[in-house]
UniProtKB/TrEMBL annotation:
Name of this protein: Amidase
Molecular function as annotated in GO: glutaminyl-tRNA synthase (glutamine-hydrolyzing) activity
Domain Amidase: 103-368
Organism: Handroanthus impetiginosus
Pfam families: Amidase
Superkingdom classification of source: Eukaryota
Listed Gene3D superfamilies: Amidase signature (AS) domain
Region (Disordered): 510-541
Length: 541
């Protein structure tokens, strides 16, 4: 009945067991929530059809942000110090002719080669392309042409983003030799801004968690831990000063979790802000691209370069964001959840923000069920042949996509649509509950990750401190567990979350700390392999 006779008997039993445990409870919950009345008069699906043949209709191009100017920036004596400078600081060094883009490329390429194998965070170094782009950036600057704050700045891309002439492996042994003759839209945007691509960074296999065909990416702050989330390479490489910034993606937690684990500032923007042409797709209604950076200011600069309408991505839009650098935070009402880091609440309050207790209310039993139905069915549609041909048997972690996508094969179409109706109700509930300009709360609460992605809500992950690791090998170890929080805004109000994050970081220095990848401290050493396994989470995108 399902044209799925390629499943073995054992796999069919596995699917039956999984359907009883996972599929049926979700189906019944959604049916009760949105399908108890006939006629379709209430709870419309969140997936909307457009009859337009031409999606190139004119939209007003977004107005660019006004960046702060720096002066008096001096070149540090060590390459290590240069590696942890912000985008604006590096740009000022180039504009004042204290360093060239080619020199910057060399510094960061050396670090990628040195630390990439240790952290298992780099797939392909694009050295020839990097020096070519850096040379062009230097030539333009010598001619008096300045393309903006990303001019000559090195960066990395998650390896689901296609770049011509280089492998785009999707982190999977099934596709590890794949070369796509496609120039991803986000890569085009960064190239036109003058940025210099150094490397394709690790994605978990088919954008699921941190396991890939070359190993498992580690956390620079604690080498025994893994980075979690499929944007593992962008998070680890930014944290370790191997790139000034990187582009990752999130479908369900793959920006927020690795950013929190690796202690970097990262933005999951409003859905549709950044075009996705040339990027491996999990779910067209959930996938988002966003930056991993040193600080919120850098996130703002990168977002400004990559946002805007992608003509080949029907979900992308010219979202009219206000300038984050011009937001008057003293006029904002900002909520804080019970799990918010109170240091953030207090610091923002001291900056004049009106902070109030807040709770996000909705009537759903569990957002995860809706997200799983949406994502898993969409992924299977994109990897149908992969499953039918048995390539899922070679997947790096059999308890991840192979298991989930077999269950997805038997999700009835009617119940997929009911999940979208339940998602529509969730969106309306969250909209009606969102009585503040933004709110502060845990960025890695799993239910909140599911809600945020289903709604398309932006969040910026902000480092807020550190604590001792558990089971430390010595009292003097420099390894730490990072503490972070999330600043959430309503869709199309990313500028508010960014402005609040910049305000917090203007009076703190947690984001400026460097992980101990060279010196773990007395009585500590880099284990190989790691002694402690971190339980995997279902983090995709």
């Amino acid at each position: 009945m399902l044209d799925a006779d390629f499943f073995s008997y054992d796999k069919m039993l596995e699917i039956e067991k999984g359907a009883k445990k996972f599929n049926i409870p979700i189906i019944r919950s959604n049916r009760k929530l949105v399908a108890s009345a006939d006629g379709g008069l209430e709870n419309p699906s969140s997936l909307v059809f457009s009859s337009a043949w031409n999606h190139d209709h004119a939209e007003e191009a977004p107005k660019r942000f006004s960046y702060p100017s720096l002066s008096g920036v001096e070149r540090p004596k060590s390459d290590e110090d240069i590696a942890f400078m912000s985008i604006l600081e590096l740009g000022q060094l180039m504009k004042s002719k204290q360093i060239t883009s080619k020199e910057l490329a060399r510094i960061f390429l050396d670090r990628l080669k040195r630390y990439g194998p240790v952290l298992e965070s780099v797939v392909t170094i694009t050295e020839e392309l990097a020096y070519e782009q850096a040379k062009h950036a230097d030539e333009l600057l010598a001619q008096g042409t300045y393309l903006g704050p990303l001019h000559g700045i090195p960066y990395g891309l998650k390896d689901i983003i296609a770049v011509p002439h280089y492998k785009t492996t999707w982190g999977s042994r099934s596709f590890k030799d794949q070369v796509l003759d496609i120039e991803a839209w986000v890569y085009k945007r960064l190239k036109s801004a003058g940025a210099v691509l150094l490397a394709k960074l690790v994605t978990g296999s088919l954008a699921y968690d941190d396991i890939w065909f070359g190993g498992r990416t580690r956390n620079p702050w604690n080498i025994e831990e893994y980075s979690t989330g499929s944007s593992a390479g962008p998070a680890a490489c930014t944290s370790a000063g191997m790139v000034p910034f990187a582009i990752g993606s999130e479908t369900a937690g793959s920006i927020t979790y690795p950013a929190a684990r690796c202690g970097v500032t990262a933005l999951r923007p409003t859905f549709g802000t950044v075009g996705r042409t040339g990027v491996m797709s999990l779910s067209e209604s959930l996938d988002k691209l966003g930056p991993f950076c040193r600080n919120a200011e850098d996130c703002t600069i990168v977002l400004d370069a990559i946002r805007g309408k992608d003509p080949d991505d029907l979900s992308s839009r010219n979202i009219p964001l206000s300038d984050p650098f011009a937001v008057d935070i003293t006029k904002l009402n900002v909520g804080y959840l019970e799990d918010a880091e109170m240091d953030v609440v207090q610091k923002l309050q001291s900056k004049g923000v009106n902070m109030v207790p807040f709770k996000l209310n909705y009537t759903l039993d569990s957002a995860q069920g809706i997200l799983n139905f949406t994502m898993d069915v969409d992924v299977l549609a994109h990897f149908d042949e992969w499953q039918r041909s048995g390539q899922d048997d070679d997947f790096e972690a059999q308890d991840q996509w192979p298991l989930e996508l077999r269950r997805a094969r038997i999700v009835p179409a009617v119940d997929y649509v009911q999940a979208q109706r339940a998602r529509g109700k969730l969106i309306r509930d969250v909209r009606d509950s969102f009585k503040v300009d933004a709110f502060v709360g845990n960025a890695t609460d799993w239910e909140r990750v599911c809600v945020g992605n289903l709604v398309g809500m932006p969040v910026i992950v902000v480092p807020t401190g550190f604590k001792k690791i558990s089971d430390a090998p010595s009292d003097s170890t420099r390894r730490r567990t990072t503490i972070t929080t999330g600043i959430y805004a309503s869709p199309e109000h990313d500028h508010i979350a960014l402005a609040l994050a910049m305000a917090y970081q203007s009076v703190t220095d947690h984001h400026k700390q460097r992980p101990p990848i060279d010196d773990l401290g007395p009585g500590d050493s880099i284990p190989n392999p790691p002694r402690k396994t971190i339980p995997p989470r279902q983090l995709r995108g």
